[in-house]
Design brief:
- GO terms for molecular function: S-adenosylmethionine-dependent methyltransferase activity.
- This is Methyltransferase domain-containing protein.
- Keywords: Methyltransferase, S-adenosyl-L-methionine, Transferase.
- The protein is 39% helix and 23% strand.
- By secondary structure, the protein is an alpha/beta fold.
- The protein has a single domain, classed as Rossmann fold, CATH 3.40.50.150.
- A seven-stranded mixed beta sheet has the order 3-2-1-4-5-7-6, sandwiched between helices.
- Bound molecules: S-adenosylmethionine (SAM).
């Protein structure tokens, strides 16, 4: 029984069912998947969101600033040569990440976001903002750090699996992959098969998939009440 069926059930479990229904309705994952259910809708959805600058209030929200700090903390003291940020939006986090890397390729498929990121980061040394849809193209090369926050739950399961497999290959031997995704009701009450319903792309599904990748070792995995942060490291190439 999934959370909706549980919520619709009657009988002694009704208060719990009502609470589950309230949680499910308040959850945003299913809304995101509904609005991006077709491949073309996803880009249109983001262009529409970016009609207003900073749609997620990344520049002003205390919650987002804490998330950014927690993301930087995941990287600990390590300094990176070449980094890739996937889904950089308007470049707000990119500006912070720049302090940890010599060079960053920041990419996003929203033209409006890319234009604003270029403006924000203009003049900053070692940063290149590219317009690219990772569902259809590779950025080229390998990176000492691949950073990706709040991206995958806008993809179908099939798109996710395909991009995830390629993304692992973008990490240089000995390099890191850092993931940050908000949790949802699907993390709290996972379905046994982990698939099917709208909203299937929970942080659990996304991060667990990378944690199972044979080429990656889990360095840190933090599950906070509202989001999960995972740092993985690609094995060094065998010597000789
Ligand atoms: C919710 S925002 C997150 C922005 C930023 N990473 C953060 O954590 O605050 C998701 C970003 O990913 C971008 N994005 C979504 N799907 C993408 C894709 N297939 N290729 C490139 N960028 C994508 C969107 O345009 C948007 O800027």
């Amino acid at each position: 029984m999934n959370s909706i069926q549980a919520a619709a059930a009657t009988g002694p479990g009704r208060p719990r069912a009502a609470a589950a229904l309230r949680r499910w309705v308040a959850d945003e994952t299913w809304v995101k998947r509904l609005l991006t259910a077709r491949r073309w809708m996803s880009r249109a959805y983001f262009e529409a969101r970016y009609l207003l600058p900073d749609p997620w209030r990344l520049a002003t929200s205390v919650y987002e600033h804490r998330r950014f700090q927690a993301s930087l903390d995941m990287l600990a003291a390590r300094r990176y040569g070449r980094a890739l940020e996937v889904g950089c939006g308007e470049g707000i986090f990119t500006a912070l990440l720049l302090g940890r890397c010599d060079h960053i390729v920041a990419l996003d498929f929203s033209r409006l976001a890319v234009r604003r990121a270029r403006r924000r980061l203009a003049g900053a040394p070692g940063v290149e903002v590219r317009s690219l849809d990772v569902r259809g193209a590779d950025p080229g090369g390998v990176y000492d750090l691949v950073f990706c926050a709040e991206l995958f739950y806008y993809m179908s399961r099939r798109e996710f699996e395909e991009v995830a497999a390629r993304m692992i290959r973008w990490v240089a031997p000995g390099g890191d992959l850092c993931l940050v995704h908000g949790t949802s009701v699907h993390d709290a009450a996972p379905r046994a098969d982990g698939a099917g319903a709208i909203g299937e792309m929970s942080a659990r599904v996304i991060h667990d998939r990378f944690c199972r990748a044979p080429d990656l070792a889990v360095i840190r995995d933090r599950r906070l009440p509202r989001y999960r942060l995972t740092l993985l490291r690609r094995q060094e190439a065998p010597r000789g």
